[in-house]
Amino acid sequence: METIELLQIIWFVLIGVLLIGYSILDGFDLGVGALLPFLAKKDEEKRALFNAIGPFWDGNEVWLITGGAALFSAFPQAYATVFSGFYLAFLIVLFSLIFRAVSLEFWGLDEERRGLWEWSFTIGSFFPSLLYGVALGNVISGIPLDQGMEYKGGFLTLFRPFPLGLGLLGLAAILMQGTTFSAMKLNGEIQERARRITGKLQKIYIVLLILSFVLACIYVSGTISNTLAWLFLLVTLVSWFGIRFFLNEGKDTIAFYMSSLAFLGLWGIVGSIHFPYLVRASNDPSLSLTIYNASSSVMTLKVMLVIALIGLPIVIGYSIYVYRVFKGKIESQNFYG
Question: In total, how many domains does the chain have?
Fold first, then answer.
């Protein structure tokens, strides 16, 4: 294997690792936000939820920024195609994340409009949770590209059966990450409510998982014969049973770990059926972007790999430190007013 091919594969895997990290870490605070009206009924409960995610949410988004920077550095053509083609969808995500951040801070300061900030936080968490999966479904199943490798479709083109199914599956996984986190970090009525909602979400999740895998077999060639995809599907199913078992046993921390394991399984399936593609062209396979025809030069890949090997352990170390400092159940309710 030539040096550039090895580097291209390494960067494909590395970007996958960053996306897994983001899904697991930012997934729980997005899930808490999207389910806020269902998890918390009183201001004290809402404050407790905000306290639970308060020390983590902004640090979690570092993983998204790092993943975007890695894609831009290693595969600039794919970055340009995706971000220009999904411009409106990503603008919705961007503004959602901005309003979400503002709402989290203003909720405790602006009591007169507290209801507005609550719904702004919920909506700002819901749309990214859905649209991330929709965008991923489109690059996997394929989008129409022209000779300049630019997206030729419209906004509604993005909402086809497979991308929409994957978007709903991603949403369900994120919501379940939020409920298992809430059950792990809190006691009392919120914990019981989170457990009940998790049980309901599991039923929706398993249906969407099976549906999405069937759609992948239909729309993505080679899925049925892909051994790795079936192995990662097994990991995802094991995590689903694990959540159910440990939740019934009252072991909320392990249930949260099982929910996190589900993201590893889901991204493993995606990587298995999508490699070596970055963006498939639905109208002409020869226009598809792969790790081989859309990567940076050998020198750029080498330099960025050195930077990644230095920077990634720092990000991981920071995350571990923060989670160790703020581990355990939430006791204080004074962070946000």
Answer: 1
